[in-house]
Amino acid sequence: MFSLNNKKALVTGASGGIGKEIAKSLVEAGAQVILTGTREQALKDVCNALGSSSNYLVANLGDSDSLSGLFNKAEEMTGGIDILVCNAGITKDNLTIRMKDEEWEEVIRINLTATFKLNREAVKKMMKRRFGRIINITSVVGFTGNFGQANYCASKAGVVGMTKAIAIESATRGITVNCIAPGFIETPMTDILKDEVKQQILQKVPMQRMGTPKEIANAVLFLASEEASYITGNTLHVNGGMYLA
């Protein structure tokens, strides 16, 4: 339905459940995709499955040296990135009264600061070409809060505010900047939860099920497409009714 023929995309956190599905959807829509992540073999496996329209760059977004130049490397490999999807993120859960400085700082550094730096590099290049799609993956808990996740919630709420500011600054240059806020999604991370924990989660979701990575990827595909060209500075909530904006 949505065509991304001749478009080039960079997807961070592309070896995980959601990132992998995002990359797959973009390739199927006709895009050339550069995947990034910390696990080289996992990235190779995804690229092998996706075929010649994909390639990868190993990068640790929490390391300034690794992050520096990442966007430029992706541009060199493709001739110019049209679509940036900032999906990479980590958790370091703890009660606020027990949370160590490093637990706070590492989550903010990877989830928020790295996302900002990639957005900044993307906007610089996209403004010159007068076209771009930036999609930042936030979270439902950036709006609702969550027990034991002050650092994660702050990082994801920060992404939303940052996205709005960058969207306003770049709107006249053909660039859209939006967020997607997933709810609870079926991934290897949620697969390991005990059944009673899953039931507690589902009690908060009106649809009474978890979402799938494909449903997040579909939202990315829409925001990356020409059909979403008049949408910017917004958050698309994909959460089964758990949070109603």
From TrEMBL:
InterPro entries, alphabetized: 3oxo_ACP_reduc, KR_dom, NAD(P)-bd_dom_sf, Sc_DH/Rdtase_CS, SDR, SDR_fam
Biological process terms in GO annotation: fatty acid biosynthetic process
The enzyme's E.C. designation: 1.1.1.100
EC primary class: oxidoreductase
Catalyzed reaction equations: a (3R)-hydroxyacyl-[ACP] + NADP(+) = a 3-oxoacyl-[ACP] + NADPH + H(+)
UniProt GO MF annotations: 3-oxoacyl-[acyl-carrier-protein] reductase (NADPH) activity; NAD binding
Xref: SMART domains: PKS_KR
Binding site for NADP(+): 38, 87, 152-156, 185
Pathway note: Lipid metabolism; fatty acid biosynthesis
Segments forming domain Ketoreductase: 7-183
Annotated active site: 152 (proton acceptor)
Annotated keywords: Fatty acid biosynthesis, Fatty acid metabolism, Lipid biosynthesis, Lipid metabolism, NADP, Oxidoreductase
Domain of life: Bacteria
Family assignment from sequence similarity: Belongs to the short-chain dehydrogenases/reductases (SDR) family.
Function: Catalyzes the NADPH-dependent reduction of beta-ketoacyl-ACP substrates to beta-hydroxyacyl-ACP products, the first reductive step in the elongation cycle of fatty acid biosynthesis.
Oligomeric and partner information: Homotetramer.
Protein name according to UniProt: 3-oxoacyl-[acyl-carrier-protein] reductase
Lineage, opening ranks: Bacteria, Pseudomonadati, Pseudomonadota, Alphaproteobacteria, Rickettsiales
Gene transcribed to yield this protein: nodG_2
